[in-house]
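Why run this: before we spend reagent on co-expression, it is cheaper to look at a predicted model of the complex and decide which construct boundaries make sense. The entries below are exactly what would go into the expression plan.
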Amino acid sequence: MVEAVAITAKRRGALDHRSEAINGVSLQPAKPARRVSLRVRSDGLAPLSLALGLDLPSKPKTSVTANSRSALWLGPDEWLVIDDGEGDPIADLAGVSVLHSAVDVSHRNAAIIVSGEKAADVINAGCPQDLGLQAFPVGACSRTVLGKIEIVLLRTAPDTFRVECWRSFADYAFSYLSDAARGV
Amino acid sequence: MATTTTKKAVTATHRIPNKGRLGTAATLAFTFDGQTYAGVQGDTLASALLANGVHLVGRSFKYHRPRGFLSAGPEEPNALVGIHRDAARKTPNVRATVQELYDGLTAVSQNRWPSLAYDVGAVNNIGSPMFSAGFYYKTFMWPKGAWAKVYEPRIREAAGLGVAPDLADPDTYAQRFAHCDVLIVGAGPSGLAAAIAAADSGQRVILCDEQPDIGGALRYETGASIEGQDGWTWAQAAGASLLSHDNVRVLTRTTAFGYYAQNMVGLVERVTEHLAHPDLTTPRERLWQVRAKKVILATGAIERHMVFADNDRPGIMLASAARSYLNHYGVAVGRNVGVFTANDSAYPAAIDLKRAGVNIAAIVDIRDNPSSALVEEARALGIEINQGRTVVGTDGRLRVSSMTVQAKSGGPERKVAIDALLMSSGWTPSVHLFSQSRGKVAFDEPTQRFLPGTYAQDCISVGACNGADSLQATVDEGFAAGEKAVRSTSASKPKVDKGETWGGGMLGAAPGSGPDQIVKAFVDFQNDVTAKDIRQAVREGMRSIEHVKRFTTNGMATDQGKTSNLHGLAIAAEVLDKPIPAVGLTTFRAPYTPVTFGAIVNHAKGDLFDPTRRTPMHGWEEQQGAVFEDVGQWKRAWCYPRKGEDMHAAVNRECKTVRTSAGLFDASTLGKIEVVGPDAAKFMELLYTNPWAKLEDGRCRYGIMLREDGFIYDDGVVGRLSADRFHVTTTTGGAPRVMHHMEDYLQTEFPDLDVWLTSITEQWAVIAVQGPKSRDILRSLVDNIDISDAAMPHMSVREGTICGGVPTRLFRMSFTGERGFEVNVPADYGRAVWEAIWEEGKKYDACAYGTEAMHVLRAEKGYIIVGQDTDGTVTPGDAGLDWAIGKKKTDFVGIRGLTRPDLVAPGRRQLVGLKTKDPKTVLEEGAQVVVDPKQPVPTKMIGFVTSSYWSENCNSSIAMGLVEGGFSRIGETLYVPMPDSVIEVEVCKPLFFDEKGERLHG
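The model came back. Tokens follow.
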């Protein structure tokens, strides 16, 4: 769906007014983004990549970023497309006739940007994945857990991660990461 | 009670100048049972107390016998104390041999009353024949009634040692998941050598050790020299060099306590336990969950005590412990020391002490002709060696004062005055973690010990825990394992110039404490188990060591028998006249040493115990004074009491307002799933009982989902947005499992369908606007949707915008029986749109209503709630929902289940309405329904109440229930027996308001 530019209703994010910097680790809510849960079989990758303006990755746990748009591989037929710029991936996909499912989940998720030298340690307080740069390089992504919730983790720089979770879990995620930052 | 008066500080009488490594470190003051003492930085509580000549630190568990320090490490069974930082921080059962000293440390002894020196409980010692092995199982059998009233409370009071803190723990704890190529447990010479070999590879190495420093046994082994330095100095330099590698993490004060599947090892790091003033924001402990490609176990060996009569008096300790206290802490454990040994390891202790100016009263060696360089060295120092002799007893009430020496074969006894007694019966390899990894230990006949045998995981044991008996061998094994773990290394192996050896010894009771002697020769100090108890267990029929263990409690204390298991096993084997491996070894279990609940819980406490989910409108609801209820992890507004209203009044008002004007309800928590694809309708046909193929775009239908067995699993309204797109709603609690249920069938049963499922529960905030005025309220807010009855009838859905451009999926649907809408908007706009609707609603005197009013309103209409009016054994037919089953359908999940004989048999419990004869009486949900309340107990129950409320709209109580053959009982009178009365009810149709259903359509 297309969101009109002139919406007068106030938008309130799940993490408005939350922000922390502890032990050199910064926790900030990510800015609003458009998100699509994209499901497609491998034979549909090419036309959808064309429509999105990036090559949908087919290697597990990798992502591809072009300008403000990223596509995260979440499963053999599943991607999370995030665009925090002006682009609207739902609109871009609307005209593609190849068999696929695109569902707007822009508001379903909220995201926290975790950055700083100890960012990986902070996330590893609740996430069992190997976040060493070799095992989880820049651009790596994974649907995984943080404490008791599910998250989608994306490394955007050696010391920066994007933690995506469902909206109502964002408060827990932020508090968990804060508590972890105090303990690193 | 511990006295709190502080007496004058005592000077450290047993600190020997120029001995040990603490040097001129800062002086620290601490108290033990109210008495102030001085220690130095680097001390443990144990070494500081010993420096002050204090040996008596505790009372034993069962007999309340005075106890001192057995060890200088984590295996300590006796010296358990309470460490009190403040009112909330009172840690019981801390091993004084592990607790590092800090300035102002407050320690108290345990398990004694009124004081450590005069303990009333010591009467148990005199009455000890009563408390023999298995006494729990025998003594308290009679009289039967006394168990609950007398014995159990008394035992519970007496059980355990320390007192658990009674205030909430104010400390914080942390957790870290870590991955590495090589995890090395133990930073003694073997572990260090492994780390040195592995470090150069650049691979990720974690080296952990439970001690504050690395070095392991080099702490006391003065006979070690490596790379031209004494062992300890070399170890510190090696540790510093490891720290300069980015790929190596060295964790001290960190115990590997559990070895789990696939090389997951649990570590607990004590971050602030040694600090006088810990920063409150720093975690007290950190739990590490390490996934290692390869694990190198360099856990060393633990010295065993000698088992002989009265071997538990304060002042009697392991020889290696006395060496640690002397060589590391500069503390002499006595001035006139006796030694009792079965191997060479006690000799260096005697030699070190002698050289430090301590008198060695005598060495008693059970070996007939001990001969080694160490024996000769002791002899040359003028130490008396009694070979072929044994110690048959000791004296001294609160501290050992003498040992009684006798030839092994008996004969005259000789009393030797002593003030400390060192003992060694040999070394037990620490195979705990290896065994936890599910590795199988193997008994090594020549050395009479269990060693790592068959490995179950990718790990390797090196050094003393693997049976290496010399420094050279431990370094060789460690280095080779480190090199192998990383395939090749450029590091060179540390060169051992000279080193000590260990080995030999005995298992079981020493001569003179055999089956013929009635003495207390302790095997397990912490649980007060003697050699006699173990023999008795065997005599009473225990054959397996697992039974002997449980009957005697040998090895079942918090030290898990680190010093006692092998002795206990050997004694049992001797009585059974079987070889040791035939009797078996008990299982080692995590944790290796006790782990705090705080470390295990770590971040998951307080607000982080479990996620609390709030809807986008939560803040508004809070401001309106909503009372919330927990629905799973969600907080849902239960009702909105106004000033002067109790909750009943609020619910009554909300229910009335919805039916007279309108109400706003936050339905955001409802599960929502978007079903997309050309086969979407086909999939819906298979997952729900209803027909979907012919549902037009823009229309909705109430759907029922069954399990394979034919019982109702979930329900909800489904809107068809387009030919290939459905917006499915589920119950709040059912959202995750319904999604999984659908995904499971899609992937396993119907993988050929072109359809995908996406959870959109949290994409949309849902504002239900229900009531006769609902359309009037929304009319001015909706931008581009015609919401007239003609254009948008009941059970339809439209996409458009609201409030000046906010996208919406607008449903015309009702769970109240009134004209109603559910406004779905993207979650971030939920609150703004809610507030806009609220402002409009105020013009019509609309209210906000909560979940309780929602429950009442739907019950007035007989709408079921899955999980309340159904319990997993209710079919659509039972619930009066046969109409929702597509009659022409040939397949859907549960279709065959519905034809099972029991599901079509007469007499099933069916959902009916229940009207109380007195309309003011509200039934209790869950209450049973009977036909004849006078029938003697057990009365036949034919059903129960599932939903019951006061209905302000009906001005009477309303209820639904599942009743046998309910549909054919309409009009019948049944009874609901309660504790104080019997309530008469009339069975009716489950529909109490607007029976024709006209209000739905406006």
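Residues 429 and 465 of chain B are 4 Å apart (CA to CA). Residues 471-485 of chain B form the longest helix (15 residues). Bring this page to Monday's planning discussion.
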